[in-house]
Specification:
Strand content: 15-25%
Number of helices: 2
CATH class: Alpha Beta
Shape: globular
Bound molecules: iron/sulfur cluster
CATH architecture: 2-Layer Sandwich
Radius of gyration: 10 Å
Strand order of the largest sheet: 1-4
Order of helices and strands: EHEEHE
Helix content: 10-25%
């Protein structure tokens, strides 16, 4: 199964991924993006987050 990964060193914490796909991405109070552990990921939503991430730091693995 493929799952989304955030390259945290490039992330600028803009929050767009969470807006686009809140079931998957969460900007935590600790200051980084958490990816939810799901059995299946909403592919279109994650693809949208990938497309809209200004730092280009979300990818499928
Ligand atoms: S959209 Fe990209 S840069 Fe913005 S918070 Fe999400 S992972 Fe970080």
């Amino acid at each position: 199964m493929k799952f989304p990964v955030v390259e945290l060193s490039k992330c600028i914490l803009c929050g767009i991924c969470e807006e686009v796909s809140p079931s998957v991405f969460h900007v935590s109070d600790l200051g980084y993006v958490q990816v939810a552990e799901l059995n299946a990921y909403p592919e279109e939503e994650v693809d949208d987050a990938i497309k809209n991430c200004p730092a280009d730091c979300i990818f499928w693995e």
